[in-house]
Design brief:
The complex is a heterodimer of chains A (391) and B (160). Chain A has 391 residues and is of the alpha/beta class. Helices cover 35% and strands 18% of the residues of chain A. In chain B, strand 1 and strand 2 form a beta hairpin. The chains are: A alpha/beta (391), B mainly beta (160).
Chain lengths: 391, 160
């Protein structure tokens, strides 16, 4: 298997609404910045992978082939990946496989989403629920928050995690976003502010939820030989793991202590590939999928940054904060930074690549030589992809 | 809202210099429930909960699966006892479409007696304070004239 490097990264600013830009334009701006970052031109791109999650958002059942030629890439191969919130992560994995296998030397990954063209938030969430099991569970017209709420409640009941702990995640991530000029929702909040926001599904309040964003991110992957052609020092993808669970959240065989078994499996596989035995000492920075505040607390445990049931303590002690032992979501994550769904997993890899390169600006984690990026999607994290990046 | 106005016929609107194009995707289905059809028919006609059983390993599936994913053999239909226990639960305060008029409502995982996996179902406890993991519950069904053959036709209440 060939070694695979990230040789360029770019993204748009993330906003609730890019009124003045179509989704192909957002993709173009991210690709333009990515190629400029790499010192590359469109002619260097041999193949493209598009992460575009939801046909209803882009208002088109096959959006990728309405972007590809506008990027000047016609007559070259392209494929679209759509796996819910893990769309970007799985798109990176598909491109990684093209390079690692030797099929191509230089592959572009583009994640883009335009979530606010649906006429209102109820229509937007409704289009997400169209992913529910069509034979039985779709009949309830459930919401995405419901699929995570049960796991969070379990964590509260069994480990004593509190609504205040979850609010601390929001304070941290919205606060981190203040260091990210591309972030959608930088805010200085208190725990009390979060607790006072309206409940959607107990115990989740409005401020515990991720953002809905419009925007795009792109990265350029190259094999070891080709990487030397580009301007930047390569950041190596040393581990990549993925797992997909039952789409019915209740129908999962006993995962032991794991509340998000796809995440655990993806992390274990990525660590094994990268040769990481002690993640707490090895992983210096993480961009993970904080779809809801309480989920991030669970993820500390799934990633082995602390033991089972210790997530809230890990957070309270400041380990996940900037300046802590394992800063999580310096970009602001999905709560403070962005969640332009198909773009998210690509943006996370771009962010961790910047951290490893030491060019993350005000959000730089000093000495971040190894980092992880992780996205997940589907009912209660049915899909997950974890990527390990090293300088 | 005057839903009868088709957005596809409306003129563009202008906002912040952008042209906003009204549109609607509307696709009606008449979806075959195929090999699962008996589940819906028994539910609507007879208020019965039908599951399936693997003849090889004995796993009982509710929701029914027509084949066992472990043994790769066809399952046989079995009538499920309308009783089980709660595995997880949550309260929904804001919801969508048909459910919007009923908030708050409760939803949870219910493991029917003998089943391998829980299902997500509607919970209608008289007193929500009694909800907990492990609580025994029983199925109740909408009256025949209100049943549509969808999983909303039944819900769970604490066992008497």
């Amino acid at each position: 298997m060939n070694r695979v490097a990230v040789v360029g990264a770019g993204n748009t600013a993330f906003k609730a609404r890019h009124m003045d830009k179509t989704f192909p334009r957002l993709a173009y701006e991210a690709v333009r910045d990515c190629l400029e970052d790499a010192g590359a031109s469109p002619g260097d791109v041999e193949s493209a992978v598009y992460g575009i999650y939801n046909d209803f958002f882009e208002h088109c059942a096959m959006p990728d082939h309405h972007v590809h030629y506008l990027l000047g890439l016609a007559r070259r191969p392209a494929v679209r990946v759509t796996t819910g919130g893990a769309t970007g992560g799985y798109a990176v994995r598909a491109a990684f496989a093209e390079v690692a296998s030797g099929l191509h030397d230089v592959v572009l990954v583009v994640g883009v989403e335009k979530v606010a063209d649906v006429s209102n938030v109820f229509e937007m969430v409704k289009s997400i629920t169209f992913a529910a099991d069509p034979f039985f569970e779709a009949h309830y017209h459930g919401s995405p928050a419901g699929s995570y709420g049960g796991a969070i409640l379990w964590h509260m009941e069994n480990y004593g995690t509190t609504e205040e702990d979850m609010a601390r995640v929001v304070v941290k991530n919205k606060g981190n976003a203040r260091n990210n000029p591309d972030a959608q929702s930088p805010m200085e909040l208190t725990v009390e502010d979060v607790l006072a926001s309206p409940t959607v599904i107990y115990p989740l309040k409005i401020l515990d939820h991720c953002l809905n964003s419009e925007g795009a991110a792109a990265i350029l992957l190259a094999g070891e030989e080709a990487a030397g052609r580009f301007a930047r020092d390569p950041v190596w993808i040393t581990g990549i793991g993925a797992s997909t669970e039952s789409g019915r959240q209740a129908e999962r065989d006993d995962p032991g202590s794991s509340l998000f078994p796809a995440v655990r499996r993806s992390a274990v596989a990525a660590y094994a590939m990268a040769g990481i035995e002690d993640p707490r000492s090895a992983v210096k920075v993480a961009e993970v999928y904080d779809a809801f505040s309480g989920v991030e607390i669970c993820l500390y445990e799934e990633f082995g940054l602390c033991g089972w049931g210790e997530g809230a303590r890990f957070l309270r002690e400041g380990s996940a904060s900037m300046g802590g032992s394992n800063p999580v979501n310096p970009s602001g994550g999905l709560i403070g930074g962005e969640h332009a769904i198909g773009a998210t997993g690509v943006y996370q890899v771009a962010e961790v690549a910047r951290q490893v390169r030491g060019v993350a600006g005000a959000r730089q984690v000093p000495g971040a030589d190894i980092g992880i990026a992780q996205s997940m999607g589907g009912a209660r994290g049915a899909y997950s992809v974890t990527v390990v990046l090293e300088g | 809202m005057p839903d009868e106005i088709d957005p596809r016929l409306e003129p563009i609107r202008e906002k912040e210099g952008a042209a906003l194009m009204p549109d609607r995707w509307k696709v009606d289905y008449l979806a075959s429930m195929g090999e699962l059809s008996r589940f819906y028919i028994e539910l609507k006609e007879n208020a019965r909960l039908m599951g399936t059983r693997c003849p090889a390993c004995g796993s009982v599936y509710f929701w029914p699966r027509s084949w066992c994913h472990d043994c790769y053999v066809d399952c046989e239909w079995v009538e499920m006892p309308p009783r089980g226990t709660i595995t997880i639960f949550g309260r929904v305060d804001i919801s969508l479409s048909e459910m919007r008029t009923e908030v708050p409502f409760y939803q949870g995982g219910v493991l029917l007696e003998g089943a391998r996996y829980p299902v997500i179902a509607i919970l209608k406890p008289a007193d929500p304070a009694v909800l907990r993991a492990g609580l025994p519950v029983q199925a109740e069904f909408l009256p025949p004239e209100e049943r549509t053959g969808r999983t909303r036709d039944f819900y769970f209440v604490p066992e008497e």
